[in-house]
Every structure is written in C-alpha cells, then in structure tokens.
Amino acid sequence: MQITVEKIGKKFVKEWIIRNASFALQAGQQYVFVGPNGSGKSTLLQLLTGMVPVSEGIITYTNLQGKEVEVDDWYKHLVIAAPYLELIEEFTLRELIEFHSKFKPFKNGLSFKDFEEFIQLPHASNKTIRHFSSGMKQRVKLGLAFMSDVPIIFLDEPTTNLDVQGINWYLDHVVHHTQNQLVLLGSNVQQEYEFCKNIISVSAFK
After folding, report:
1. Which CATH entry fits the domain spanning 2-199: 3.40.1360.10, 3.40.1350.10, 2.30.29.30, 3.40.50.300?
2. Neighbouring C-beta atoms of residue 9, cutoff 10 Å
3. What ranges do the domains of the chain cover?
4. Residue 97 exposure: Cα atoms within 13 Å on the Cβ side
5. Local confidence pLDDT in tens for the 206 residues of the chain
6. C-beta separation of 10 from 66 below 8 A
7. What single string gives the DSSP state of each residue in the chain?
8. How many other C-beta atoms can be found within 10 angstroms of the C-beta atom of residue 201?
9. Could you tell me the CA-to-CA distances from 188 to 36, 160, 166, 200 in Å, in that order?
10. pTM above the 0.85 mark?
11. CA-CA distance, 175 to 30, in Å (whole number)?
C-alpha cells in the first residue's frame, strides 16, 4: 500500500496546524515524522489515517495493484497504536483480543494465548482492561499493532507510559514484526525510531 499526499493542510478555527504538506510514502518502508511537542505530528498522523478530515489537499491510498482505495475503506488496511486511543475498558484482555481479531486477523494465524504470551501478559487474560496500568494498556496497543495482518502500521509516541522493560520489549519487536509493512511513526524520541531511514520534519509544513 502506498500513500500519496498532495498539498494537504489542517486548520483549527483560525490556526493552520499543517499547511502545504506533500510527500509519498512507499509500501514496505519506515517513516518517522519528527518535531517538537505541539508541532502537529499527531494531527498529521490522524489526517493520514482518515480519523480527521483535511481542510485542503488530497490524500490517496493506492494498493499494490495500482488501484485507488476509497477513503471509507482505509481503516481496513491500517492499525494504530497511540496514547490517545482508548481501549474498551469493560472487556477482559481475552475479550478485547477476540473482538479486535474479528476486524483485523493476526499474522500467521497467531492464537489468542500466544498473543498474550507475546505481550507478556498471560496472567492478565481474564483481567478487565480498566484495571490495567497505563503501561499494560500501551503494551496491548503495540502488540495489536505489531500482530495485525494489515499493510500499514501507525505508531504515535510508541513508548509513552512504558517502563524500561517495556521500552526494551518495543525495541526488540518493532523491526522484526513490521517487515514488508508501511510503518509511520510520530516521535521526538530518537530511541523510538532509530531503525527508520526516512525522517520527515513536521516543522516544514507551516
């Protein structure tokens, strides 16, 4: 899947958060959007996912067959891990995994039990999400992103709320489990994106 961005902008009230942004994101590559806090990294990622509409410009998804994907179908091709995205608090971990897999199946037919082992939370299978720590929730979000069988992965500030062990877990898996996928990060922490060869400064889009 390729994403083409042509002169997009996003305006909130009278302020332009992003303006005149143009670039192409190639299938199977890793990109990071960098910039200081408040520079618009999260906004840009939300524009690229279709969660937030652009105020101007065009975003195009094109599949490997060269066919354009309708905006209403973008969600089928991507997965997102971000601190501001809420998990369903009433579900247990196992119920959340089962629910997610109905929309985004796991890679290589990974079982629910093996997924819980992968995120190092097998003991919490029947625990309600509302009782998870912020770090546990972030590990669940990242695990779902890494293991969902989709062509595009969005990671916004991926190590937020993770302790040292959690950060090491992220670094151990982010490259190995995202091969051949288009990976898009928003970050100002170099450790999170050292594997990315493509760096795009959001500050240029002002």
Report:
1. 3.40.50.300
2. 16
3. 2-199
4. 27
5. 999 999 999 999 899 999 999 999 999 999 999 999 888 999 999 999 999 999 999 999 999 999 999 999 999 999 999 999 999 999 999 999 999 999 999 999 999 999 999 999 999 999 999 999 999 999 999 999 999 999 999 999 999 999 999 999 999 999 999 999 999 999 999 999 999 999 999 999 98
6. no
7. -EEEEEEEEEEETTEEEEEEEEEEE-TT-EEEEE-STTSSHHHHHHHHHTSS--SEEEEEEE-TTSPEEPGGGGGGGEEEE-TTSPP-TTSBHHHHHHHHHHHSPBGGG--HHHHHHHTT-GGGTTSBGGGS-HHHHHHHHHHHHHHB--SEEEEESTTTT--HHHHHHHHHHTTTTSTTSEEEEE-S-HHHHTT-SEEEEGGG--
8. 12
9. 6, 11, 18, 11
10. yes
11. 9
